[in-house]
Amino acid sequence: MDVKALSKKANKYKKWLENSVLINPFSYEVNGVDYYIVIYKRNSNVKGYSVISEGFYSSKDAIKAFETLVLYTVFANNFFEGEETKMKLSPDYFFEIADKINHFLQSSTEKNKFLLKGKNTLIELGDILKDLQKYIRDYSNHYDEHILKTNRIDEREYESILETLSHLNRLQYLQGKVFLDSFEDLKGMEREMKKQKIDQQLSRDQQIVLKELLNGTKETKQSIKALDIEKKIAHLPVEEQIKILVEEFKKAGRNNLDRHKRNLRYPKL
Asked: Which secondary structure element, helix H or strand E, spans residue 142, and what is its range?
């Protein structure tokens, strides 16, 4: 990737008052030529695109490359924008609180259904979060170690980002559903933890996590409200869910492609 040569071409299509010219660090190959997408911004707003190459150039091929490059860019941005929030909370908090409850249950001669149900829910939520964060780490590592080193994407890479986003949406819906379905069990667990003084054994951070979890019903309802398709297909095997969700992402991409093309400065359509 000849950044100097590409930058010179990219700046040709920059407009007045635009303060950012971004050449994506990956290309898409058509007929042996690597094409790169350039994004022009004014402040944080995308104002336009161009497609450039280091040497030989075909407008027809460049437009074909643009279709995959722009959609991959949009979906990859969605992934990285949500990455920090989803990685913020460690699943260990759920497991550690569950472990405190389990220690009490094992030392007690009485069965406590509230603590048992709550403990099992915490473990389930922790497992879901652990899976979700694994998908994020795996794709982030792939992006850093493969895409940024080869400076290239292809149709398989486009499929891969959609599969990753599909898994994240699937798990986000599952996480919300388990939480809302088990909310009363968690509230019962909280009452019993106070009654048995288990809450006093929690660290300050663990207490904060539990409090924020139990105050999160409104936020959770809002977050899964947009996951209507995930809700409808949640009963299907995971593999079938992912196939359906990938097709939904592709459909959304196709529906937005004309809008992106209207902002394409070079080559002219």
From this structure: helix 113-142
Q: What is the DSSP letter of 14?
A: P
* Dist CA 2 CA 31 (whole Å): 19
- The residue among 94, 89, 168 whose CA lies nearest residue 131 is 168
Q: What is the DSSP letter of 226?
A: T
pLDDT at 84: 83
All structural domains of the chain with their residue ranges: 3-66+262-266, 80-258
For residue range 19-66, list pLDDT tens digits in order.
899 999 999 999 999 999 999 999 989 999 999 999 999 999 999 999
Q: Per-residue confidence at 145, pLDDT binned at 50, 70, 90? A: very high
CB 23 within 8 A of CB 3: yes
Biggest alpha carbon–alpha carbon distance for the chain: 79
CA angle (10, 12, 16) in 5-degree steps = 105
Whole-number Å distance between alpha carbons of 34 and 6: 11
In degrees and rounded to multiples of 5, residue 184 shows phi and psi of: -65, -35
83-92 pLDDT, tens per residue?
Answer: 888 899 999 9
Cα separations in angstroms, 182 against 120, 153, 174, 214: 10, 42, 12, 11
Decide: 30 and 61 in contact? Cβ < 8 Å: yes
